[in-house]
Design a protein that fits this description.
Elements (H helix, E strand, L loop, with lengths): L2 E5 L10 H22 L7 E5 L9 H14 L6 E5 L6 E3 L8 E5 L10 E4 L8 H4 E4 L3
Parallel strand pairs: 1-2, 2-3, 3-5
Antiparallel strand pairs: 4-5, 6-7
Helix pairs in contact: 1-2
């Protein structure tokens, strides 16, 4: 059950300073790639959960486009990855996120309307499927 958990400053809303967003999102991608490269292929972790606030939009492409390419071309979808966020304020479960077989997106309701979302992370039991690596219980 070795899971690398990463929290990022990816937010929604209006872009107040395009240069700041570009620098931050590019820096966050480079940092995420370095942390994953140091931990996942070496066996320190079997999978990754990335948590942030925002639902990916065009405003976040400086992070998500290189991240998708990294998962596809460098990691070759060999490790389960979940992107967990609360933006949107309704539950969404998206397998094959960004058309990548081992990337899963969960958008949680958040706030006080839904109970706490429980995530069971056991990427060592993936058996080739991100669904087995990350299971959830909405407690509804």
């Amino acid at each position: 059950k070795k899971t690398l958990i990463i929290g990022l400053n990816i937010v929604g809303g209006r872009v107040h300073n395009q240069t700041e967003w570009d620098v931050r999102l590019n820096s966050e991608f480079e940092w995420v790639r370095n942390v994953i490269d140091l931990n996942v292929p070496t066996g320190n972790a079997d999978g990754v959960i990335i948590m942030a606030h925002a639902k990916p939009t065009q405003d976040h492409q400086d992070f998500f486009i290189p991240f998708r390419n990294y998962v596809k071309n460098e990691l070759q979808n060999s490790y389960p990855i979940m992107y967990l966020h609360g933006d949107g304020h309704k539950f969404i479960y998206t397998p094959h996120f960004f058309n990548q077989s081992n990337v899963l997106r969960i958008q949680h309701e958040g706030g006080v309307r839904d109970p706490v979302l429980k995530i069971l992370a056991d990427p060592s039991k993936q058996n080739g499927s991100v669904y087995n690596a990350f299971q959830y219980d909405r407690q509804l």
